[in-house]
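Standup notes
- DV: blocked on the single-chain target, sequence here:
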Amino acid sequence: MKTPLFPLVALGAALGFSNASAAGPLNVPGTGDGIEMLRAVGAAFTADNPEIPVAVPPSIGSGGAVVAVAGDREVIGRIARPLSDTEKAQGLVFTPVVRIPSAFFVHADAKVSELTSKQIADIYSGEVTNWKDVGGADLRIKVVRREDGDSTLAVLRASMPGWKDLVLTGKSKTALTTQEAVETVRAVEGSVGFGPYSSALKDTVAVVKIDGKAPTDPGYPSAVVMGLIHKASTVTADAKAFIAYTGGDKASAIISGLGGVPIAQ
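- DV (later): unblocked, structure below
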């Protein structure tokens, strides 16, 4: 008498076994920094490896990726900050992928294309409140900031002149993701925000030069590193293959074309 197939499948699922198609795509949750770049690299990887679809979902932040991978809910994630000693002790391993400049961007009606580092610090401290005071339109400035633990804000504090101990104005909106910051600046007249640079950003908002330098110019003062995290105890062969692919020539060309600086692994 043949053993019915259904009980065996059910038993396998209960024990945590599954085949590749049942497992679904290789999910890479985490930061919004560099999401367009990683999606493009993921699409290229899947084109070269059709049996391994890659999904790069909307941002849940670097912290969300750490929780997901450390808690064994995902085998791989994306973050835009260094791992803490506590996170390393949990077995997390970081592989850098791309250096992404930290850009400032404004609503087109602000009528500014360049600011000094002092002017941008004065805007975010609340000392300057109208665009006309920095050469723009006679329009009230509406500041969009990020939460204190945001990776781009941390990089600005570490590298942008005047930002180390800058107290951000209380008259501001806190965006919880990069996408929210960009969308708010796109939609709200007079607004200014910051986030990781990508070539697509300038199609949505006006990216400003700082001290005469565009985000992609040599010597631009501020950038964040986005990379992938995994645990050696849970990483799969598919995840290892994707991590290796992000350091290859094809991924590097994609990243460069989208405004990032590839990092050799």
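- Follow-up: The longest strand covers residues 92-106.
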